[in-house]
Amino acid sequence: MKVSDMVASQVEPETRRFHDGGLPALGGLPEVPPNPHEDPRIVLERHSVEGREQFALERRIAYRDRHFGELLVPADTVTFRTDLTSVPTLFTWLVPKTGAHLPAALLHDGLCHDDDEAPTYTSTDGHSIDRVEADRVFRDAMADTGTGVVRRWLVWSAVTTATLLRGDQVPWRASTTWRHRVVIGLSLAVVLVLGVLATVDLFDLGGVELPWMGERPWWLELIGGLAGAIAVPLVMGLAWGRFRVAGWVMGIGLAVLLHVTVGLLGVTGLYRVVERLASRFPMVAAGLAVLTGFLAGVVVLVLLAF
Question: pTM higher than 0.85, yes or no?
């Protein structure tokens, strides 16, 4: 996909493309057909599966796609499970688990299935949808829910990267999947390594000088580092072929959000350590809390004294 294709693929939001999907025929009861004149009714039942939160959809969601027509999710309301928006906890500040995009996320969950599983969606017009097309439907559906342009392209790039890495429900051979995996791994690794080196260069920590930063005033090095965080992923993303836009978005996102992500990882790791310590050794945790408070007070008094 070229930049021109990316612009051309922007769709005009149409909220009425989502509608009530009714109910499939179950337990001898007749089907409740979709109703294009009714808003979608998202009725969720919470389940805990091996300690993981999952939800059953008690009513179908219907979506009228621009290419495939009416799509109904799930095909079976009894067995279908979803974790809502599939996003790591670390990045829920950027893409929440729920929100305006939830109908599109549930639709995408229903359109995706493993190769050895039966489809978890129903196409009224009898279409078979591979995962690449499911990702495209997801992106368009997010537009129809009012999701912002930047967020929906970030999410599309993330799910497309997962599609390329998984290699399930795709219209290519296993060898192509392995080529995608190598290209994605190498390109993101280069971006990650250069991001670390740029940080070292900026703070003069190890004698590293990247050509676009060098030994310059800190603000010029910062500008050079930001420029590199955009230019390098643009070059590396070309190796992603027709999925180059996903490569550009993922590469630039990784480069720009690297330090934020590392900081969040540190805070998350610290929280988990403290949580586990408080659960297993409450007296030790209480003692460390008192000691930390005491030391913090001493540091403040010392700093005030100078």
Answer: yes
